[in-house]
Write a structure and sequence with these properties.
Layout lengths: L4 H15 L5 H7 L5 H26 L5 H15 L7 H11 L4 H6 L5 H16 L2 H7 L6 H15 L9 H24 L3 H29 L23
């Protein structure tokens, strides 16, 4: 039976309440000041792979959209990450965070050292958006419904617990607090408008579950490689690699 608009929105929000990665132990460790410098660096390196893939995902989505209005509304997502003449963009802000934690931004941007499981999960997300229906692709982006809380908690926790944290190094998260609401408002409204049968609602909900799995699996990989049992797989970043040469500064 097709759910009402209100009931379906509640269903989507419940997925986030149960499955969003703010519940992962690695984030509790990070936000609480329990990460070593190398664990923070491993997080920055691996999360960069996700950040730099988001514009690729959005470009793949737009290449399939025939409605000019939908393309126009979606275009700002690419600009938010890649930047414009007046906005440096999220990718550059993330590399500033990398530099603040002692990493060479060029090393991070090369994506060397990214865990195999991180690549697998993120590439699966890009492929999902490229191949699934437009409704499923938009629904998968709705994890941003739950992002403002994790950004606020992260900003507060990092500022309280780590010397590298300041307005400059954390500008990515601060800007997402302003950028994400417009994306969420449009994406949620579009999904609620277009998921007008039980089959479509089920597909949209499953897409959101898939995206929470993508985010959660990245943290599982980080935790296993750098926290417990601390077994870094072949190809994963080794502490000491890609550090910024402060002497050259």
């Amino acid at each position: 039976m097709t759910q009402s608009r209100e009931a379906f929105e509640a269903r989507l929000r419940q997925i986030g309440a149960e499955r969003y990665h703010d519940r992962h132990p690695f984030h509790a460790l990070l936000h609480g000041g329990g990460c070593t410098p190398d664990q923070v660096r491993a997080w920055v390196i691996n999360r960069y792979y996700y950040q730099h893939s988001i514009p690729l995902k959005d470009a793949a989505f737009m290449s399939r959209v025939e409605d000019p209005e939908l393309r126009r509304r979606w275009r700002s997502r690419i600009e938010d990450h890649d930047g414009t003449d007046t906005n440096e963009g999220g990718i550059r802000r993330w590399l500033r965070l990398a530099e603040a934690v002692g990493l060479d931004p060029d090393y991070v941007a090369s994506t060397r050292g990214v865990l195999p499981a991180t690549k697998f999960a993120v590439d699966a997300y890009v492929r999902f958006v490229r191949e699934k229906t437009l409704l499923e692709a938009v629904a998968a982006s709705l994890t941003e419904l739950f992002a403002p809380k994790i950004h606020k908690d992260r900003i507060a926790g990092l500022l309280q617990n780590y010397d590298f944290a300041n307005d400059s190094s954390l500008s990515y998260f601060q800007n997402r607090l302003k950028e994400a609401p417009k994306d969420v408002a449009f994406g949620l409204g579009w999904v609620l408008d277009h998921a007008d049968t039980q089959e479509k609602q089920d597909a949209a909900a499953a897409a959101l579950v898939f995206k929470t799995d993508v985010l959660w699996s990245q943290l599982d990989a980080l935790h296993a490689a750098y926290v417990e049992p601390a077994r870094i797989p072949p190809g994963g970043w080794q502490p000491g690699e890609g550090l910024l040469d402060r002497r050259a500064a």
